[in-house]
Structure formats: C-alpha cells, structure tokens
Amino acid sequence: MRAPIGDFDRASPASDCLGELIRPVADAVRHWRGSVPADQIVYVDTQPQWADTAAFLEHYGKELLDQSANCVVVAGKRGGGTTLAACVVLSATRVDVNGVVRRQLGARKASFAPMEVATGETGMEYGGITPIGLPADWPVLVDSAVVDLPYVLVGSGSRRGKLLVPGKAFAELANAVVLEGLGV
C-alpha cells in the first residue's frame, strides 16, 4: 500500500498491524467506530530516533510539516482537582494552554502534564502520544485546522511508527471537542 501522504517504505492499514501497536492504540483501532472506516487509518513504520517532530521532518521531508499534528497532554487545575486532557494541534503551531485550554477545561491554571504523568496515564511513550487510544474519560481538544485536513500524520503511541489519519476522524473520537484557535 502507498501512504496517502509522505513517502514511507512501509505503509499498511493500522488494523493489519495491531501487533505493532501498543495495547491502548491497538484496542482503539480494533474497536473503531465512526464514519471513517478503520482501514483508512494507516500505520507507517518509522525509526524511533526520528520520532520528534524536527528530526522526523528533517528525515522524511519538511513538506509534511503542514500535514503533521502533535498530541500533548495537559493538566487543568481548579481547587484541589486536576483534569487531564489531550490537545491535538498542527505541528507548526503550539497549544494555547493558558487561553483556550484553560477556558475549555474550566481550570484556574493549566499546564503541560509532566512526562511521567503523560506516559503513565496514557500507557504511551513520550514522543509518540496519540489521541487514538487515550483514556475514555479524557477530553480530547482538537484544533479545527487538524480536522480540515484530508490526512494528518500523528504519533502511534510509541516512538516507532506513526499513524496517518483522516482529519475528520479526530472530531469523532470519544469526548472530542473541535476548537478554533487551539493551535497558535
């Protein structure tokens, strides 16, 4: 199969690569529901040393910048409680944590979750966190620019491999909220 975006040596429907995906992501693909068929989610095999956005683009092509998204975990605090959420924004932007995220979560303060919290709560590797397979009760905040793309390159849950996902599929994830201006 040829990848819908980018030039990768190996691309396959993620549903055919469940053994290569970490458990929460494999389970999410296995039980996929929505208007986008699961076989349109594509797994591309990439090397872990190129997982971080800058290194990835240097190796696989800077033209992927406008088709790539980052998924980051944020913690919103109010009173004694903390709400963890995922934010999905285009890689060329940064998450508006202190504006859009804080207001959406109804938090007094919002910040990026510490790495050990992000990886421990998701079961995913740092540098590979994806919105597919997150804890079911988490809000998933998605920038509208991500949803508008035909395909988006995002982490696969581990530093090895990436997922190519139709943008509109992100709007259909459990607890997804599409927001204008989440990525600035």
TrEMBL record:
Top-level taxon of the source organism: Bacteria
Any matching Pfam family: tRNA_edit
SUPFAM superfamilies: YbaK/ProRS associated domain (SSF55826)
Domain YbaK/aminoacyl-tRNA synthetase-associated: 52-169
PANTHER family linked to this entry: CYTOPLASMIC PROTEIN (PTHR30411)
Stated name of the protein: YbaK/EbsC family protein
